[in-house]
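W.,

You were right to be curious about this one. When I first looked at the sequence I had no strong expectations either way, so I just let the prediction run and decided to look at it fresh. Below is the sequence, 312 residues in total, followed by the output.
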Amino acid sequence: MAKVVVLARSFARASSEPLDVLYNANLKVEQKANPEPENEEVVAELIGDAEAVIVGVDRVGQIVFERCPNLKVVSKHGVGVDNIDLEAARVHGVVVANAPGTNAESVADMAFLLILSCARNLPLLLENVRKKDWSSSVLGMELEGKILGIVGLGRIGKGVAKRALGFGMEVVYYDPFVEDETFRRVSLEELFACADFISLHVPLTPETRHLVNEKLLNLMKKSAFLINTARGELVDEEALFRFLKEGRIAGAGLDVLSFEPPFESPLLTLPNVIVTPHVAAHTKEANIKMGKIAALNVVRVLEGKEPLYRVV
């Protein structure tokens, strides 16, 4: 009986259906808590002699592949695979698969929630009410007529754009790989200069790390907001902190940061920053879809078939 180790913390949280996929394939399933997802030695020890692993943010690289010779497939409970060394997987003949599209609607919802929360300064309003302050001195902004700049017009980016149209916003986008006649395509510099809200929806790669840097932040309107539900490392957070603290941009809504949990980050000390705990994909619907795809990828590889969504 082949064994699959589940390290993804949210796997099958909303429903047992993803687990049923594994059990119905006659697999031995071991769900394990990983106290150090960034520590490959811990990850390798938890995987042990298993043929398959379902990971969340757990780091999988050379150490894991060397110490887990039975491993045939790494299935990502999610979309981004920047925590998996794809080249090392190729060298060791290990299949890597993911679950694209399963959380697109959930993340798009969250991105737009952050846009709305920034526009109306929702955290301050909630805090005032808790302090029994019923004053109406906090002025927000309407979204109608404002420009939303989307960096990366994939499934999630298009979902955010669709929501923005419903609020009467103008949408511009930057994506060198996508052409969409519905929206106006602009350069990255033009997008940062013209947008009232900028929402990031690109994967983390060596080319996109610190994509949002001091140069681009300097182009933003003083009244503009940055929204990030993609990856924290897309943003130079030291530069972002300076611009926010000095009032050179209006604010930020961040579901992801470079180091998580970010309790030591100076960004958490700023009143014009909304931070949520990397929960954009955490809905019941997304959890079930993501879990079933991650499980099916494992089952298909162990049965000698192609996974539904192969990365390498």
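Here's what jumped out at me. The first helix runs from residue 17 to 24. And, maybe more interesting for your project: The radius of gyration is 21 Å.

Coffee later to discuss?

I.
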